[in-house]
Write a structure and sequence with these properties.
The chain is mainly α and about 60 residues long. The protein is built from 2 helices and no strands.
Amino acid sequence: MSGADEPAKLARQMRDKAQQLSEAAEKAKDPEERQRLADKARKMRDRSEQQSGMSSGDIYPQL
């Protein structure tokens, strides 16, 4: 794998982790834990979108 593929790979890994966190949040019994996991998943998705934008050459993320 070339270095050029690395940002896309990282973004994909981050999306996968965000999905895992979302699933864990749905299963959490404790409301505080559910919210913590959901927030972490949202932040991870946001970061993966930024990473994906960087890998595609879009240096200005959409607001």
